[in-house]
């Protein structure tokens, strides 16, 4: 049985996507005071980490 080809909406590897996600989280931590002034930091960091973890967990399953 032939393996299904996965179509993606981006043109780079999964590893690159994870690296970009980790960089974005690092930038949010760096700019913590600005996000706290808006009352967004805890929610944004939590959702970003969750999305990245889900991607890491589901990618091998979907491939």
Overall description:
The chain is elongated. Helices cover 73% and strands 0% of the residues. The model has no long low-confidence stretch (mean pLDDT 79). α1 packs antiparallel against α3 (41-62). By secondary structure, it is an all-alpha fold. The chain has helices at 14-30, 32-38, 41-62. The chain has three helices and no strands.
Overall residue-averaged pLDDT value: 79
SSE sequence, one letter per element = HHH
Helix fraction bin: over 70%
Give Rg in angstroms. Answer: 15 Å
Which overall shape is indicated by the principal axes computed on the Cα atoms?
A: elongated
- Distance N to C terminus: 15 Å
Main pleated sheet: none
Structural class: mainly alpha
Strand content: under 5%
Low-confidence stretches are none
Total of DSSP H or I helical runs spanning 4+ residues: 3
Task: Please count the beta strands (DSSP E, at least 2 residues each).
Answer: 0
In short:
This protein is mostly helical. It contains three helices and no strands.
What is the topology?
Elements: H1 14-30, H2 32-38, H3 41-62
Helix pairs in contact: 1-3
Sum up the structure in keywords.
mainly alpha, 3 helices, 63 residues
